[in-house]
Amino acid sequence: MLKRRVPRVLVSGFLLALAVSGLSACRTSPNVAAYVGDAQVTVTELDSAVAERLTDKDIAAYADGNEDQFTRRVLSLLVQEEIYAAAAERYDVQVGNDAVRARIAALLGNDNPDDVYSQLAQQGVGREDVFENVRQQLVRQRIAAAEGKAGGLDDAALQARYADVREGLAEVSFGYVTVPDDATAAAVIAQLTADPASYAALAATFPGPYTLPALETRAPDQVPSVLADGIAAAAPNTGFSTPVPDAGGVVVTFVAGTVYPTFEEVRADLEKEASDQADAAGTSIVDDVRKNLGVTVNPRFGVLQDGKLVPGDSGVVDILEDAAASASSSTSSTAPSTTPAG
Question: 171-259 domain in CATH 1.20.120?
Answer without folding.
Answer: no
